Here is the input.
Amino acid sequence: MVSDSFVDRAAELARRREMDRAGRQADRSTRKLAASDNRQRGPRAPKTASRFHFNKKYSNRAKAHRAPSSAVVKLKYDFRLDRPEGERNDLDFVYVCGPDGIPESALDPIQMAFTSEGALGRKANLKARIMGHDTIALPADLTKSQRHELVRNLADHYQKTLGVPVYCAAHLPDSGNRNYHLHLSHPLRNVHDDGKGGFRLGEKIVFEQRPNVRKEAGLNPTNHNDLKNLRMNIANIIADSMFDAGLDYQQSERWRHGHLRLSQQLQEASKRGDTQFVDDNFGRDPTRHEGPNTAEWSVRPNDPKRAAAIAHNHDIDTSEAGPEFITRTLLNRILDQSNKAGITDPEQFRMLARDLGLNIHWVRMNGNKTTPVSGVQYQIVGGPKIAGKQVGASIGDLKRRFGWAESPAYHRYPAKTGPEFEKYSQCVLDAGLNITPGTTKDLLPNAIAAIHQEADRLKTQAVQSSPPVVPAAGDAASPQQNFHHLESEQMKAIHQPDQSDGEQLAKAAGIVATAASAAKFIPGAAPVASAVEVAARATQAAVKIDQASGGAASKLSPMAGIKGIGDARPAAHSPAGQTHQYRPGPRPRG
Here is the structure.
């Protein structure tokens, strides 16, 4: 006779096997769904949002514990050398450039990856950086030749800025997306000729030097500003390429300011009159980058924060302010109240925030009770927890604002009685704040009202700054309207494929002359500068067309340089002295 306990154990094992089988089947089905089409994941941001993206990573020796696992693996992936030759269809363009006089062998990306890994030595730290690897989003509205020219400009700017070879591989979009993107890699050490036909790696480039070395050279101890300037220059180069291609002015300017925070992008859009961008993007929370081909099966079901982020991206609604935006607004008002009351003590600040409807949570490192506080989270009553860094008030920001020498000690909220509470109540009373200590005063409606007020202000400014409307045929047009119309249409007139080079140059000259004549009748010095800008852009565009029409521009096929990278060297080198200069573009005004 079989015991009941044995039957129960057998049933439990059978149930677990069935659950495992069902889980594997679900994984297979969702993998297939994600591989075929990942558009079902919902929108990430409004169509008018800036698509600018820049991500910087470093290869190291940590292998599976970090990504990318190694420089060699990363370069093989970028140039699709880890795949059979028939499966490299998504490789759009390859471009390599380096400083003048660099050994030819240094233009081979795989050889550079092997040399960079060997230069560290066997006893190097696993987290030591080997090579830099950047991913840059490319506009989907450019033509193939325009996109390739943009890759060359980006690579040449990197090469001039860092002084090392640059290896670029542009990829076509994934299935169901429009994410044209560029993988750009570069060594972290200066390249020297070894006198034997090869190359060797020397000292680190200035961008990667230690703080004391940078300080001695008269630079900032960290490269944060260098990275910030690099992001800005990349955005300017992309925006210039879009404007030179004849695309919409507002569309190119959204890319130009895409490196800024969303709140700063809204301010810039309002100044230039981009009413659609303000209307679509005001109040929403910044979306989180999830990487290419992110499938739902890879999300762990026991990760509620990740699931909440995905749900938010699915249900994003630009007509209502997001929780992060509301939390930031409420926190700013609470900081103003604390300044009026002269509150600087950490726990008094927490009590004030609680009385105004915002809970502040000190976060300890790794959740260990013995470790000090290393972060802060804010939570509106009934809302999600928002990290301090996301709302511009991290633990470091609070320490600088309130003059804390050390991070606050972790403990629960103080009781609503006792000396500490009495001291807080006295501060509130002396400041004359409309708060009853120990009783929550809902400040959220005031924060929402402030959000709507700010939205109205930005929209009003955007409408006032928007360019004049071009009148219909037969209607009288002012000189300002004629000027702005010519300014927006000058690139379209130049890009006519059925015209010869001479005809295009003649039309460019005519547009410059007409725009300058219209500018004479507009009071003020700004239109004169705009006319000069129009002339410069038209001339530059004509020169580019003249160069490209005869095939003079260096065009590498997708597989050029993979089997013999040295063959691509003459076209890969940038012209001597070529640098990128910021060109803000015309600013239409009403």
Q: What stands out?
A: The mean pLDDT is 74. The first strand starts at residue 54 and ends at 58. The longest helix spans residues 4-36. DSSP finds 19 helices and ten strands in the chain.
